[in-house]
Amino acid sequence: MRRHRYAKIVATVGPASSSPEMLKALFLAGVDTFRLNFSHGLQADHARVHAAIRALESEVGRPIGILQDLQGPKIRVGTVLGGRLDLIAGERVRFVLQGAEGAKDAIPLHHPEIFAAVVPGQDLLIDDGRVRVRVTGIEAAAIEAEVITAGAISNRKGVNLPGTLLDVSPLTPKDRADLAFGLELGVDWVALSFVQKPSDVIEARGLIGDRAGIMTKVEKPQALERIDDIIRLSDAVMVARGDLGVEIPHEDVPGRQKELIRACRLAVKPVVVATQMLDSMVSAPTPTRAEASDVATAIYDGADAVMLSAESATGQYPVETVAMMDRIIRSVEGHKLYRSIIAATSPGEEETPPHAVATATATLAEAVHATAIVTYTASGTTAARVARKRPAVPILALTPNLDTSRRLCLLWGAHSVHTDDVDSYEEMTAKACRHAQEEGFAKPNDAIVTAAGIPFHTTGNTNNIRLIQI
């Protein structure tokens, strides 16, 4: 089940893809990690999907990652009079903390944290920015505003406040219940929504510990102001371009994407690019040329993974969409300019012995035309350090930890294998040679390069390289 590409594919499970048969078809088409979106569906539904994925994992004999995406706080207007209010540019409107079925002079907005944070001159974006109003006055339980961009407001539409730091936890009571449920199931990753500051990640870490990796979704401009600290505290990052693109100018999103990918590579953290990548394939069998180029850009940027949302969750062509994404990735990675672009966007070197060893491993493997880099890793750190260099040699990541093997399904270039623990250097070498052949990475007389930490059972201590001829 070897993938002949380096970047990984994450696909969201939904009504179009939740059956065991469809999950298998998606995996065979190229999915490496499945996303369970807890903004939709019941816990029982997600439990059934989780069980089906684990059964599929046993059937195919390959680790499969499972990502639980928490809903996070959702700021919405309440119920409006008649179910719809048509706002005209220049007119005055009023938002109130209490009440229901409000007209333009009493639009319900049941979020006291907004009333405590906004000041005159700030904008409220409603329905993903389709309607924009500017705050002109604040009262204890009311906000006066002027309509800047006309449009319709209907019941329960979302509200964004670009540039406003809200005093709200990223974990609602629903999220906490869903998180406890997901950890009990045994999800591999937890995607954390609405992160504004480093302490939000620390709060989640207190609940999650090491039971799952924390994937921080960058979707708030406030997070960009402290992004280095947030990345350092996270285990992975998702560039959530949909929500981020509502709160920052559209023209700034591509540059921010490149910055985030580079920062994550420097920090040795997997980074996923998400939202609307092949959106037209929700209802069409082929993407637009612009969408294909968008996926390609993320791969040229060096992203560890790209993600499908509605395309695989509710779309009419989920398998075709995954197959298309797989084809785009393989085409980009085989292009004559790919290697030079990846090298040009390298984030530089960390001046530490483990990073130096990992860099030397990648350089040596390329110099001798090795067929694989075999890393023996308990936590996944050794494999991640090698992957940071984006070598032109596949990474065979051997680990005695089943959880680690599943989390490595997000890591660029890594083919993870769950294997027995080793106690000696000779045993590790023999196991590297055997798995390299069994997994289709090497044959007799081929060269492989191994990287490990000695002594064994010590996390994060990458200090050994060996060149081996099979």
Task: Give helix % range.
Answer: 25-40%
**Which word captures the global form?**
elongated
Q: Total strand count, please?
A: 21
Number of domains: 3
Ranges with pLDDT <50 over ≥5 residues? Answer: none
- CATH-defined fold name of the largest domain: TIM Barrel
Structure summary:
With 470 residues, this protein is of the alpha/beta class. It is 37% helix and 22% strand.
Structure description:
By secondary structure, the protein is an alpha/beta fold. It has three domains: 8-73 and 169-344, TIM Barrel, CATH 3.20.20; 81-160, PK beta-barrel domain-like (M1 Pyruvate Kinase, Domain 3, Beta Barrel), CATH 2.40.33.10; 353-469, Pyruvate kinase, C-terminal domain (Pyruvate Kinase, Chain: A, domain 1). The protein has helices at residues 20-29, 43-60, 112-117, 173-185, 198-208, 221-225, 227-233, 241-247, 253-267, 289-301, 310-313, 318-333, 338-344, 353-367, 381-387, 402-407, 425-438, and strands at 8-13, 33-37, 65-69, 84-87, 92-96, 107-108, 123-126, 131-138, 142-149, 151-154, 159-160, 189-192, 213-218, 236-240, 271-274, 305-308, 372-376, 395-399, 414-418, 447-452, 464-469. The strands form four sheets. An eight-stranded parallel β-barrel has the order 1-2-3-12-13-14-15-16, surrounded by six helices. A six-stranded mixed sheet has the order 6-5-9-8-7-11, with no helix packed on it. It has a five-stranded mixed sheet with strand order 19-18-17-20-21, with helices on both faces. Helix 1 (20-29) runs parallel beside helix 12 (318-333), helix 5 runs parallel beside helix 7 and helix 10 packs across helix 12. The protein is elongated. The chain starts with 7 loop residues before the first strand and ends with a strand. The mean pLDDT is 95.
